[in-house]
Amino acid sequence: MVRMLECFKYFLFVLMLVSCGKETYFDGVGIPIRETNRGDYGLVGLDGKILVDFELDAKPKIMTENWTHYTYDKKLVFVNDKGKETTTDLLDALSFHEGTILCKLNNGKLAFYDKTLQMVIILDDVEEAGPISSGLFKFSNAAGDWGFMNLKGDVVVKPVYHKVKSFREGFSIVEKYDEESKTNRVGIIDNKGEYVVQLSTKFTELDSFSEGLSAFKSDDQSGYIDINGNKVIVSDSWRETFPFFKGLASVKGDDGEYGLIDEKGSYLIKTREKIPVKLFNGLSIYQGSNRKLGFMSSERELTTRSEFEDMMPFLNNGAFAKDGGEWMYIDENGKDISEFNKSIRLIYHEPFTKSVYKDNTPFDLNSTLKSSFINIDGFYKEIMKESSGVMHKIMTARKNLDASYLENLMLEYDKEISLIDKVGVGKKTIDTYQLMNGYFEFDSNISFSLKYYFNERVISKNGDGKFFNEDSKVSSIRVKIKPQRKGKGKTKELLEKIEMALLKNNKINDIGEILIEDKVKVKLSRDYSNMYIVYSYNE
Questions:
Q1: Do both 91 and 30 map to the same domain?
Q2: Among 377, 408, 373, 375, residue whose Cα is nearest residue 394
Q3: pLDDT tens digit string along 186-233?
């Protein structure tokens, strides 16, 4: 009777396995595909079904949360899992995560959008940012320091670190360079910015948490620590460690080969495999002596021969494998179970597979977008605007030099300079670059200088000393604009914006000069590195 009961239990167990099928991972993911080297692109799901037919004009990113995008004709086109395309004027984007996606606007600023493709928040003063993870996203300011914000724009962790990793399981790895000791210190913070492991030189590297453990490296050891910073698995013979997944992790030994350990650090597979061991549905890809690939179990039992040129992990009821130059969808025994009736010669799975192995995520959560915004409108308003800018105030003095205004302007930029003392006798020019030994810094992207040209020498001298020559009149003033950082190499684009702003309220003459109130002529020019705007009086 007992024997019959045991057999019945075993039968129910097998029946449950058959009815439940394989476990599925990474819902909402689609992989870019192509029929030929020159054909259009499509997307295929991890279940082996084609999501979007071969009708996309350019290669899309990996689809996450049922959305992807590609760039065509300088426009960002979003595509959902139904194949619906939405063309935008965005410049770039990361991937959807936690219902939002980080995008770059057409003015270069960064912003988050939701799945209805509506803007959630613009990041006005952010230079670089990453995706939302655990409700927070990492960002850097103009100084290059990193912190964290939420989607309301609240700074949750102040930007005081030189490197941070996106939050995982409620914690972030942070790094700070100590100027005094010239050392890099690594620590762990929670989602309120509080230290759970203080900054120190104890670790040279920490990876994001997975299943409560973080892979570490130190000068002579590697392994895994818990959330309190305690070393729970330690080895002096591992070159590389991978995150835990379902209680198991792959490690690379001194011999350059890979093995598989459990949460106690015990080997399930000793370091003897040519590629990392990562189990999904009990199967891992292995590489045979013929350098081709197949599937094996955690006991290293081969379920397929090593006959495939390329493979993806077993993430659903099957897995993609490449044989004879074409991709198919196979079961655990290598049998072709493809349901699609089209040829797939190319599957662009590498970024996805790499992220799955390295981070247990469909894309790199530490990827970032950089702002390319240059505040040329603010520069125009402050320096060049006809009714209120610096140049307006200078030119309204007509041909007389307003020495006090120029001295105050330099003082605003922390340079206290006396023109009567600094300008040489007999000079017919005043160059702020020479006087200040540098440029006016409008912001981190735009610097400028002013050079006055006079009809006679500016400074004269007699027995009483130096004095301003009243007969010396301003003939023209050159504004030299030097784009820096994000502005480098963009003089053509920036000068066109300045010209458009000037032409809104002014007219242009036959020789290409802009006339401001018929009193002042403005001429624009540029080279690769600088822009030049020359103001002269219209006689």
A1: yes
A2: 408
A3: 999 999 999 999 999 999 999 999 999 999 999 889 999 999 999 999
User: Each residue of 423-438: pLDDT tens digit?
Assistant: 999 999 999 999 999 9
Distance CA 395, CA 452 (A): 11
Q: Are residues 193 and 252 in the same domain?
A: yes
Whether residue 294 is predicted with pLDDT greater than 80 in this model: the reply is yes
Percent of the chain exceeding pLDDT 70 equals 96
CB proximity list for 190: less than 8 A, separation 6 or greater: 170, 171, 196
Computed over every residue of the chain, the mean pLDDT equals 92
Q: How many of the other CB atoms lie within 10 Å of CB of 306?
A: 18
Is the same domain home to 128 and 85?
yes
Closest to 303 in 3D by CA, of 270, 325, 281: 281
| CB of 480 closer than 8 Å to CB of 451 | yes
Say if CB 454 and CB 460 are below 8 A apart: no
Within a domain: 6 = no
For residue 400, pLDDT over 90 is answered with no
Q: Are residues 400 and 363 in the same domain?
A: no
What pLDDT does 528 receive? 86
Tokens of 14: 């097998």
What pLDDT score was predicted for residue 176? Answer: 96
Residue that is last in its domain, among 370, 386, 415: 370
On whether the CB atoms of residues 322 and 308 are closer than 8 A, the answer is yes
Is 182 inside any structural domain?
A: yes
Judging by beta carbons within 10 Å of its beta carbon (0-12, 13-18, 19+), is residue 534 exposed, middle or buried? Answer: middle
Q: The domain containing residue 492 runs over which residues?
A: 376-537
The pLDDT-based confidence of 2 (bands split at 50, 70, 90) is: very low
Domain boundary among 330, 351, 370: 370
Q: Distance between CA 259 and CA 531 in Å, rounded?
A: 59
Please give the Cα distance from 265 to 208 (Å, whole number). 18
Span 511-519, average pLDDT: 82
Which residues make Cβ contacts (< 8 Å) with residue 231, sequence separation at least 6?
A: 216, 221, 223, 224, 225
Whether residue 382 contacts residue 375, with contact meaning beta carbons closer than 8 Å, is answered with no
Any domain includes 14: no
Helix (H) / strand (E) containing 190: strand 183-190
First-last CA distance in the chain: 116
Q: Give 106's DSSP letter.
A: T
Residue 284 to residue 75: CA distance in whole angstroms: 40
Q: Are residues 340 and 484 located together in one domain of the fold?
A: no
Q: Which long-range contacts (CB under 8 A, 24 or more apart) does 47-50 make?
A: 47/316, 47/317, 47/318, 48/316, 48/317, 48/318, 48/320, 48/329, 48/337, 48/338, 48/339, 48/340, 49/339, 49/340, 50/340, 50/342
Task: Give the confidence band of 539 by pLDDT, cuts at 50, 70, 90.
Answer: low
477 vs 124: CA distance, rounded Å? 33
The pTM of this model reads 0.87
